[in-house]
Structures are given as structure tokens and as C-alpha cells.
Amino acid sequence: MTTRDGVAAAERIEVTSDQDVVRVRQLVRATAVAVKLSLVDQTKVVTAASELARNTLVYGGGGSVEVLRVENGRRAGVKIVFADQGPGIPDLDLALTDGYTTGGGLGLGLSGARRLVDEFEIDTEAGRGTTISVTKWCR
Amino acid sequence: MVKSGAAARDLREAQPGGRYGEAAKMLSSQEGNSFADLLATHAEAVISAWTDEVAHSLRGRLSHAELQRQVTELQKGFQSALFGGALDLADDAAAELRAQLSELSSLRARQGFSANETAVSVFTLKDAILRVVNTDDAGSLRDYVSFSTFIDRAALFTFDSYVRVREELIADQAEQLLELSTPVVKLWEGVVAVPLVGTLDSARAQVVMERLLQSLVDTGSPYAIIDITGVPAVDTQVAQHILKTVVAARLMGADCIISGIRPQIAQTIVALGIEFGDIATKASLADALRYVLKLTGTTKRQER
Number of folded domains in chain B? Predict the structure, then answer.
């Protein structure tokens, strides 16, 4: 994890069911409102969180989501870290291709979420689990 | 009635793991009898003191007469359980009492009282008994401590029942909500609408689809409007559910229009890369209705 961003507050949710995905969404929305993201950006980051939290649940077999308020001196933002101990992603390029899915979805969750946020980092290896951290900054 | 001769046994039982251990009975038969005697002899005083205590804790939210009736029944329940030889709340002789306590919890839970207020209704029996116990006599006091343990167990049992009833209530409400939150309304002749509100998970999406398809058949409507004004976030899962519903409706010969696409939702959908293809989408329900009416208007003219 990066340390250049000052972390103001952090909250963590264990994701083991669909209900937890809803909780993640609510927490992200509350945090996005607190750091004064615009309505469009709120919706974008909530949607991205929804996609990634569901990936954590469905493909990662459950994991944890951490929602942080961050500052880089000039701007405030929301940073969300999704971590699971699942099978990992063997071919990242393929997984990030629009329309590619192994689970019967639209195949847009991962690639779409990347377009919805400002920063997107993914750390994965087959058999070792996946950690994705995304950040959305106030404009 | 309360004998000081019980002192030695009481001291022994007061050891940790003795009286409070799971296997040990809470009362000896002698204590059980003296407890029952105490309740019977001072019935009126206990009931009156108990009612007052409960009334105080509930701050006048139940009438005094109603409380008195409940308390009298409970007092009788305790008394007959103890006379029947119940030494522990789990005993067969206490079955009636347990049923009464469950009934009370369920009543309180449905009336909207807190778990605390419900358990206090039982705990206050201790205060009521304290008023009639001879506090100068060490033996009576020791017996009182044993009675207290029995009452504590009863109150905890009430607490448990309360939580169980509340969980049932919540489960029922969740089910009702699922029913409530997916109405299909007839908007115009040949036009039905589904106003979606809240999170569209798989369970709800399934209900929505079933309802919509059924109402298309029932009303013979060629048009359906799916309004997503009340859906806070449209992610790929929500989109997929909507798309599947639209495709299913099309198979039945009906056209779907998606309305309630707010600016932030539109931008998010574009960024996500979701394509609604040739499905008509509108910003508001009014726009969607106008669009459908225009379509039906022209078709009718052509038919003539």
C-alpha cells in the first residue's frame, strides 16, 4: 500500500454475502459524501466499489473491504482496498478485457471499475489471492 | 416459612460452579418450597409491588389494569411451577411458566418494547419479593439470593424469546418488503410500469421479472416501462438483470422502455461500458409514457 497519501479515517467490512456488498456500497457512499465528492463522482465510486466487492465475493470467495478517507495535501478522496485469498487472476490482461467473463456476467465489472476511478492498482497472482486498491479524488 | 437452617447448605452452594454451574439445580427442593410459600403467602403484596415496579419501568405505556393482569398470571405461573417441584427453569414442571414467559416476550416484542423493558418485567419480581422478605433474618436473605438466581434465569429466558420473536418479525418484514417493493402498475391502456426502488439483487430481480411478465399477460399490454429512478447505483449486475427482463419481455412480444436514468447514472453506465443496445431509455417516467403514447398513437392511425 502507498504511504504518500495521508489517511484520515478507515473502516473495514468483511465481505461474505450479498448483504455485505450492500453494506460496502453504503459505507462508500457515506464516505464519498463526507469528503464532498460531486454527485457524479459519488455514483461512480459507489458503482466501482459495488463491482469490485462483488468480484471479491464471487470470484475471491469472500474477503475484506477497507474504506479510507485520504488526503494528498491538495485534495481529499476515497480509497478502497479489496482483498481476498481466492484463486487469483491468472491472466490479468484478459480479465481486464471488456466483455471477458468467467462467471456469466457482462464482463465489464473489473474493466469498468477501472474507468470509474482515478487510481487503480491490482496485485494478483494465481493461487495467492487478489488485492485491488482504487482511489477517487475530489475534483 | 423461610428457615435459617438452610445456611450451611447455602454457603456450600454459593461456591462458583455450584449454584451457577450448568448442571446444578438452581434451587434445592427446600428453597423451592419456601419460595413457593413466600409467593403464596404474600401473593397480593408481591403482585401489587411487582405491578408498580413494572409500571414504573415501562413509564405508563401499558395500562395499570393490563399490567396487573399480566403480573398476576406470571405470579401464578411462578407459584404453580414451584409448587409443582420445579427447581430449575428447564424442569418439566416449569413448562407452563416458560410458555407464559415466551408469550409475554412475544407480546412485548410486537408492541414495540425494547428487550431491556421486556426482561425488566421479570427482573422486577426480585424487588417485589425483597419488600416482603424479612431482611433482618440471615436465612431469609440467603433464600432470597437463591430465588434471585431463579428469577434471573427466567428473565434471561424472556430475553432470548424476545430476540427470537424479533428475528422472526424481521424475517417476515424482509419477505413482505420483497413483495411490496415490486409493484407492477398499469399506467395507461396497454402500458404497464415497474417502479424499482432500492437495491436490485438477484432475488428481487427474479420477483420483478416474474411479476412483469405475468402482468403483461394479464393486461395484454404491448409496452412495459421499467423505472429505475429509485435505484441508487446501477452496476453491471443490476444492468444485467434489467437486460434479461427486457429480453424476456421481448420474447413475449412486449417492448420495454427504461426510464429514470439520471445524469450521474448515465455517466456511470457509459464509463462502465454497459450498452443497452436498441432498448429505448428515457430520463423520466413522464418522458417514457409520452414516448409510448406517441408510438401507440401512430400505430393506431396506421391500422385504420
Answer: 2
Q: Are B162 and B202 in a shared domain?
A: no
Cβ atoms of residues B193 and B249 within 8 Å: no
Reported ipTM? 0.81
Tell me if the pTM is above 0.80. no
Q: Do B236 and A112 touch (CB under 8 A)?
A: yes
Q: Of A19, A39, A50, A54, which to mutate for an interface test with B (greatest number of B Cβ within 10 Å)? A: A50
DSSP B2-60: --GGGHHHHHHHTSTTTSSSSSS-SS-HHHHHHHHHHHHHTHHHHHHHHHHHHHHHHTT
Residue B118: CATH number of its domain = 1.10.490.10
pLDDT digits (tens, 9 = 90+) for A33-78: 999 999 999 999 999 999 999 999 999 999 999 999 999 888 999 9
Looking at B175, B206, B225, which one is the last position of a domain? B175
- For residue A111, give the nearest of B240, B264, B273 by CB distance: B273
Domains by residue range for chain A, with CATH: 11-137 (3.30.565.10)
